[in-house]
DNA sequence: AAACAGTGCAACCGCCTTGAG
DNA sequence: CCTCAAGGCGGTTGCACTGTT
């Protein structure tokens, strides 16, 4: 038995909306709102349309402040960045682009942006790709990560493309405004890190999550995510900690961070405080470094150029050649 | 000018989630 | 809990428009 239709298909108009229908719907909603019931709305508004169709027409076309027309470079960057992080969750992406609808973004991605980026990647010689990344060869726990549903899972790179791994430090590139020509290595890294177990099995660290909502940072570049098991409790322990971007999913704490909203920034207004999870500078919430260290590990200093995505672990014994702590992230100096 | 191919986008479909009863 | 209607969402379709031969 199939699913019951949402309306009587034989009795509703389909296809493109006429200006008269648009006017009726707009007038009705502006006067009465939707009353939380789209199904009943068309009849009340005198429209021979399915409620779902009315909803779609309103959300995608008629509601105020809808932006039509070309996407700006900044919007391109945001879309790419978010797509790289969360995949085809168009409504989440649209939420970060005022005036744009999920449908618009989806169409734009499928018809233009994807091709644009594929074109860029095609002109990069494959020898520039990092074909293998020897990250944590012995620490990557099974099962191996499955390929992401989207082909291109990251489009950005840093100005530093160093990928170095030894037993003390790891440098890699994440985040920037430039289109990426070595997507594969970055993908591998991100996927590997998801399965990197640290200290104990409860401290599973995820980096560059693709399965949870993300944010974009104030400079328009991408941000990445850390998921740190059992941290909801600690987050609460901090007290005033009210992160602007986190989700409670499967009892994990998810923290957005990235370029422009560094874990630790020298440019923070308050000394010895850290900005975490934000979309804009104004949204950034600042927390005492010492408290955050307890939460996520050692923080790094920013390089002053918004090029630092460093994240330090809570392991006193692991320091790099600079005497800094074992970290994941980018540093250019 | 006509035929055909390619493109863009509005609208639809159907699955999944949510929440009220 | 369970059920089910309604909303939300991502994937897909169909058609109008534009470009090319």
Automatic annotation (TrEMBL):
Location, primary (coarse class): nucleus
Describe the location of the HTH myb-type domain by residue ranges: 9-62, 63-117
| Example of a GO biological process term | green leaf volatile biosynthetic process
Pfam families with a match to the protein in the record? Myb_DNA-binding
Membrane-crossing residue ranges in chain numbering: none
Localization annotation: Nucleus
Q: Which UniProt keywords apply?
A: DNA-binding, Nucleus, Repeat, Transcription, Transcription regulation
Q: What is this protein called?
A: Uncharacterized protein
Give this protein's Gene Ontology molecular function annotations: transcription cis-regulatory region binding
Its cellular-component GO annotations read: nucleus
The record's annotation in SMART domains points to: SANT
Domain Myb-like, first and last residues per copy: 9-62, 63-113
PANTHER family membership: OS09G0431300 PROTEIN, TRANSCRIPTION FACTOR MYB36
Return the Gene3D superfamilies for the record. Answer: Homeodomain-like
């Amino acid at each position: 038995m199939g699913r019951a239709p949402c309306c009587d298909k034989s009795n509703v108009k389909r296809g493109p909306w006429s200006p008269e229908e648009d006017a009726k719907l707009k007038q009705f909603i502006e006067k009465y709102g939707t009353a939380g019931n789209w199904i009943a709305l068309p009849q009340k508004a005198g429209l021979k349309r399915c409620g779902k169709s009315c909803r779609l027409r309103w959300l995608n076309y008629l509601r105020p402040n809808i932006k039509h027309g070309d996407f700006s470079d900044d919007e391109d960057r945001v879309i790419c960045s978010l797509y790289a992080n969360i995949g085809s969750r168009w409504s989440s992406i649209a939420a970060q682009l005022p005036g744009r609808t999920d449908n618009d973004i989806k169409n734009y991605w499928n018809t233009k942006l994807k091709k644009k980026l594929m074109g860029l990647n095609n002109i990069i010689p494959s020898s520039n790709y990092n074909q293998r990344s020897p990250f944590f060869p012995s620490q990557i726990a099974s099962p191996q990560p499955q390929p992401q549903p989207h082909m291109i899972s990251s489009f950005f790179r840093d100005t530093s493309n160093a990928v170095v791994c030894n037993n003390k430090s790891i440098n890699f590139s994440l985040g920037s405004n430039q289109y990426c020509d070595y997507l594969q290595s970055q993908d591998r890294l991100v996927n590997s890190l998801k399965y990197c177990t640290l200290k104990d099995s409860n401290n599973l660290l995820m980096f560059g999550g693709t399965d949870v909502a993300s944010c974009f940072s104030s400079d328009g570049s991408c941000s990445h995510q850390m998921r740190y098991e059992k941290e909801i409790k600690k987050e609460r322990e901090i007290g005033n900690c009210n992160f602007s971007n986190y989700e409670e999913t499967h009892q994990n704490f998810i923290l957005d961070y990235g370029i422009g909203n560094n874990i630790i920034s020298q440019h923070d207004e308050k000394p010895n405080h850290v900005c975490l999870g934000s979309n804009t500078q104004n949204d950034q919430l600042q927390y005492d470094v010492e408290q955050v260290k307890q939460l996520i590990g050692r923080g790094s200093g920013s390089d002053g150029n918004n090029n630092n995505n460093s994240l330090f672990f809570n392991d006193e014994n692991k320091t790099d050649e600079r005497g800094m702590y074992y970290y994941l992230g980018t540093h250019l100096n």
